[in-house]
Amino acid sequence: MLTSGIALFAADAGALLDNPVMRTKLALVLLAVTNALAFRWTWSRCIADWDRAPPLWARLQSGLSIVPWLAIPVAGRMIAYL
How many structural domains compose the chain? Predict the structure, then answer.
């Protein structure tokens, strides 16, 4: 998806940036990457102890992280319709 997305964006970047769904998609990518980096930074020190009991906040953060990652391709498909 990354390779084809970059190619499609490069073909018509000006019109895509005017599309509100594309801006939403870019915001979702930023949110998802920021969350992944925050997760890594926050929990990397204690991840060795997770075999017994992962922290509740870490489980919630990782569970909720699926939302933007699933919304990104949905937004990509919606770009053609708006």
Answer: 1
